[in-house]
Write a structure and sequence with these properties.
- With 376 residues, this protein is of the alpha+beta class.
- The strands form four sheets. Strands 1, 15, 16, 17, 20 and 21 form a six-stranded mixed beta sheet that branches. A six-stranded antiparallel beta barrel has the order 2-9-12-11-10-13.
- Helix 2 runs antiparallel to helix 3.
- The longest helix has 37 residues.
- It is elongated, with a radius of gyration of 45 Å.
- The termini are far apart.
Amino acid sequence: MRGWGALGMGCALAAGLVACKPAEKRATAEPVQVTVLALKPEAVTVREALAGRVAAVRSAEIRAQVGGIVQRRLFEQGADIAAGQPLFQINPAPFQADADMAAAALQRTQAAWRRAQAQTARLEPLMREGAVSRQDYDDAASQRDQAAAEVAQAEAVLARRRLDLRFARIDAPIAGRIDQALVTEGALVGATDATPMARIQQIDKVYVDVRQSASALEALRAGGARLPVRILRTDGQPYALHGRILFSALQVDPGTGDVLLRIQVDNPERQLLPGMFVRAEVVKSQYADALLVPQQAVQRVEGRAQVWRVQEGDVAQPAEVQLAEAIGPDYRVRSGLEPGQRVVVEGIERLTAGAQVAPKPWQPSVSASALRAGAH
């Protein structure tokens, strides 16, 4: 009996030793699946949409230069008008009568000048022979010169009367689109009227005036007129129009720190009308070798920006970065990253410092690609 008890205790002790022996093999952790972006410098142009107002390239108010009764309107309201095209006809009868009177006065002075000229020519040889005095000849020459001056005066009066007659027909001073007529047939108009008869605006090209921060002018000076400008609709979509910056104002608004920018836009289909409010997308800044990271790759830890880098051996480590402005779906990196480094974009939530990762190239979505292309 004692032998059997000792044998049982030995077996129990052996079983306990086997149970307490540590495992020789441990299960290894699987690498974290992530997508990464390899950073590379690229040229970036940052644009800013600014509110602006459309103005006509040229605008003319049609006014009468002589007084009279409007007989006819010679244009269709809202039509395109050529320079020199007749617009209104004022009753020409009074001006024609004045021109006829001036022409008759000119003929009379010309007759008097010819008579004085002939008289002087007759007295000249007689004066040389002593038949008439020198005084008589000088008086005749003076009358001839006075008659010549009266002829010149009569010619000027006739030219003025003919000009008034021509002004009785009011022509378009510029080419463009004419608005509604502001006077009707039978209205009495004059050169001092406060209200114009109509307005013409040239809108095949228009100006868009916007205000830009004075601090952003350096990029505009660097690019000048070569920098394109896009005009945006109310829904944010661009018009199919080409614009360029003409100039910036010389004075900065002390209240806002802004300067006025004038943009010239080709408007062949008259899509933009004077007075419209639009948004002009202008260049804010340019970078020759910017590093961009997707916004979804950035975390905020205690108010500081951080990304995850994949180092040699596919090991993930956090890195603090300094960020500049947002450009579409990306941030521009000011410091903390170098070209060629790999940044984790997707799978960040499963990472710890030193974690082994299985990286795959990150592919942006179609919408993100479109935003990135539009912003750059």
